[in-house]
Amino acid sequence: MESERPCVLSSAGGIPLSSQIDDIFRKKIISGEWASDQRIPSELQLAQRYNVSRSTIRTVVLQLVGEGLLYRVPGKGTF
C-alpha cells in the first residue's frame, strides 16, 4: 500500500513533473506495489502526496488507463 513518507520530485534538470510521476507510477505497477485489482489512492491524495496539481496526476493516470496499465470504475476509483 502507499507509504506515508514524502516523495520529493525535482523541478530542476528539465524533466517535467508529469514524466517523473509517470515513471514512479509505472514502477509501482511493475513492482506489484500497486497490485492487480487493487484501488490506488485518489487523484487528490496522490496530488497531495507528490505536491503537484490534481490535473498533473489526472493526465498521468489517464495515459496509463489508455495504455491498459490501470482501469477506472465510475464511483469506485482507479485500479
What does this structure look like?
The chain contains three helices and two strands, in the order H-H-H-E-E. The chain has helices at 17-31, 43-50, 54-66; strands spanning 72-73, 77-78. A two-stranded antiparallel ribbon has the order 1-2. Strand 1 and strand 2 (77-78) form a beta hairpin. Helix 1 packs across helix 3. The protein starts with 16 loop residues before the first helix and ends with a strand.
Give the key terms.
mainly alpha; 3 helices; 79 residues; 5% strand; 46% helix; 2 strands; single chain; two-stranded antiparallel sheet
* Radius of gyration over all CA atoms, rounded: 12 Å
Strand tally is: 2
Order of helices and strands, N to C? Answer: HHHEE
Strand content: 5-15%
Biggest sheet statistics: 2 strands, antiparallel
- Molecular shape: globular
N- and C-termini, Cα separation: 13 Å
Layout of helices and strands:
Layout (H helix, E strand, L loop, with lengths): L16 H15 L11 H8 L3 H13 L5 E2 L3 E2 L1
Antiparallel strand pairs: 1-2
